[in-house]
Amino acid sequence: MFDKAGKLLYLVADEQVKNSDIDLAQIVDLAIRGGVDIVQYRNKIDSYDDFVSKARIIRDICYKYSVPFVINDNLEVALALQADGLHVGQGDMPLPEVRKRFSGILGYSVKTPDQAVYGQENSADYLGAGTVFSTASKADAGYAIGTEGLKSIVEVSTVPVFAIGGINLSNVAEVVATGVKGIAVISAITLQDNPFLAARDLKHAMNMDFK
User: Fold this and answer.
1) Is-contact 60 89, C-beta < 8 A?
2) What is the 3-state secondary structure of the chain?
């Protein structure tokens, strides 16, 4: 999926961060039609069975459009649904252990160059770097690394880097200028009145000068 031309738009679809007037599945459908290239499903509130049930709906929408489907953190759900990818963070199961059980696309959250090197040396297929700017969409995001911190990660990385955290139309150009493969967003799409237009405008802005 990473050899697609241009910069990639990665949507993190979070059950807790969405426009209350629009179903999350509908948000995902509209966002993909607007230009989203990858979808990660995050669910920190439901039981395993409810997680699987809701994730299956999102997965089927992704498959309808041939968009890669990634599960956040939960290896068992990723295996049960035969997800294309799994994304894990610093506090989750160590990458070598994850890779023993999961053969799909493996993403890893990083904040520093050292973490980036560890990730790529331990089977991560891509890195999620951030949070770049302060954000309220993820309670455990921690300190913001800024575009300079992001650039330092890009410089050492041998795998694609996706920037995440507080990215929107007002700052996407400076983020893309660091050399990332793409951007990952939550509220910039999921909290908007029109997820289709939000995704379309972001995709256009991030690729306008960097084709």
Assistant:
1) no
2) CCCCCCCEEEEEEECCECCCCCCHHHHHHHHHHHCCCEEEEECCCCCHHHHHHHHHHHHHHHHHCCCCEEEECCHHHHHHCCCCEEEECCCCCCHHHHHHHCCCEEEEEECCHHHHHHHHHCCCCEEEEECCCCCCCCCCCCCCCHHHHHHHHHHHCCCCEEEECCCCCCCHHHHHCCCCCEEEECHHHHCCCCHHHHHHHHHHHHHCCCC
Q: In the prediction, which pLDDT does 140 show?
A: 63
According to CATH, the superfamily of the domain at 8-207 is Aldolase class I (3.20.20.70)
- Nearest residue to 91 via CA among 64, 76, 109: 109
Strand partners, 39: 11, 69
* Residue 61 exposure: Cα atoms within 13 Å on the Cβ side: 23
pTM for the model: 0.95
pLDDT computed for residue 26 by the predictor: 98
75 residue type, one letter: L
